[in-house]
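Page 37, top half.
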Amino acid sequence: MKTLLESDLFLLTLTVGIYCLGGMIYRRMRTTLLHPVLLTFLAIIVFLKTADIDYARYREATSVLDFALGMSVVALGYLLYEQVERLRGSLLPVCISTLAGCLAGIVSVVYIASAFGAERTILTSIAPKSVTVPIAVSVSGPLGGIVSITSVVVFCVGIFGSIFGEWILRRCGVTDPEARGFALGSAAHGIGTARAIELGAAEGALSGLAMALMGLATALLLPFLEKYLY
C-alpha cells in the first residue's frame, strides 16, 4: 500500500485532482480563504504527514509540475508583448513603479527580518518574496538561500495578497483598475494576478505585466543589493 501511495502517477494525479476539486469549491463558494492553491497546499501537507512520505519523494514525483511552472514563467513574455501599445505612452511611470515596488519589497522584508535577528541565509531566502516561485528560487539559491524556505514564503505572500490585497487597496482609496492590477501583480505575483483577473480585464492585464516586470527587476537587482543590504 505504501508503495502505491509513493508512486509517481498516484502523487501527480492526487495533486492535480485536489487542485481541480479546490477550484470547483472556490468557484462555487467565491470565498478567498478557499483559494484552490491554499486548499491544495494544506491537503498535500496533511496527506504527506499521514502517509509518512518524505517531501523529497513527493517533489521528485511531481517534478513535471515544476517544469510546467517554469514554462509558464517563460510565457510571461507574451504578456509583455500584449501590453506594448499600452506601454508606449506610459513607459516611464511603469518603469519607476516597477523599480519602486522591487526595492520596497526587498528592502522592507530584509530590514524587518533583520530587526528580529534573522541570519543572512534566511534574509537571502525571503528577499525575493514578491516574485513567482521559479524566479525566486533561481535567484535565492545561487546567493546561498534555502530554496524550500523561499518557496513557502513566496506562496504565503501570494495567498495573503490574493485574500487581502484588494481589500487593502480599497481601504487606501485606490480605485483605478490599472493601478489595482499593477499593485496586485507586483506584490503577490501569480496568485495575485489570478485574483486581479477576477476583478476585471484591465486589472488582469496590468497584473500580468507587473508580475513579469517584477520578476525581471528582482533577478537583476537582488544579486547587487545583497552585497549592501546585509
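Page 37, bottom half:
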Amino acid sequence: MSETLMERLKREYSSFTRAEKSIANYMLAHHERLPFDTAASIAEASGVSQMTVSRFLRTIGYTDSGTFKAALRAELDAGPLLVSDRISRIRRAGDESQRIAENFELETRALLSAYEQRATPQWREAVEAVATAAHVRVSGFQTIHGIASDFASRLSYLRPDVRFADGSDGTFADILGPDIDEACVVLFEMRRYTRLSLSLARAAAQRGLPLVIICDTHCHWARDYTDIVLPVRTESALFWDTQTPFVSLSGLFLDDVIARLGESVRHRVEQLKALQDEFEAFES
C-alpha cells in the first residue's frame, strides 16, 4: 500500500526546516480542508510566503499546487466508498458496541464541523447572499436531494421566491432562463458527486451568480466555482456517510437568515399561517 501524504509528513517531519514544519503542521492539523486550499491560503495560515509553500510542495514530490491537489484528491477519493468495501468492513467488525461507539465519536466530530462553519467569513457571506437575493434556488441530487428540498421548503417560509430546482426540465430554466433576474444558488452535495452538480456550479459561476456550496470535506472542486463553500465532515463507521451535519447546518443557517431578515419574517409567517388556517392545512 502506498504511503499517504499524512504518513509521509509525519515520517519526514524531523528533517524539515522551521518554515517547512509550519506548513507541515498546518497540513496535519487541517487535512480535511486541504482540497479547498490554495498555495496562497496555506501560506497565510502557516505564516510563510507563497514561494516557500511552492518550494515545500516540490520538496515532498509535487511539481506545483495543481499536482498536489490532484494527488490529494485521489488519496481522499480512495477512502472506503465502494459498497463492497463497506460491507466487508462491517462484516469484519468484531465487537459491535465498539463500532457504534466509534461512529458516535465520528458523528460528534461531524456535528462540531457544522457549528464551526458559523464562525467563518464564508458563513456570513452565505447568509447575506440568501437573505438579500431577489430569487433563491436550491439544488441537491441523489442521496442529498431530500435535505436540499427540505431546506428550500423551510426557507420559503422566511422569504419570498425560494424554489427547489432539480433540473427535471433538462434546462435549469428556473435558475438560468431568460425570464429570471440574478438568482442566488444554494447547492448541497456529497460524494459520489453528480455531473449535474458540476454542470450547475459551472453554469452559475460563468454567469456570475451568487453561489453557495454546502458539501462534504472531500469536495475538491467546490472552490473552483465559488469562494462561499461550507464544508462539513461526513466520516462514519456505518454503511452510509453521515448526513447529520447537513441537517444541523441547515437549522443553524436558517436561524441566522431569520436574524438577518428581522421583522419581515414575522409578517410573512403570520400571512402564511392565515392561509394555512383558511385551507385547514394542519391539525390544530
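Margin note: The beta strands are 135-139, 162-164, 183-189, 211-216, 229-232.
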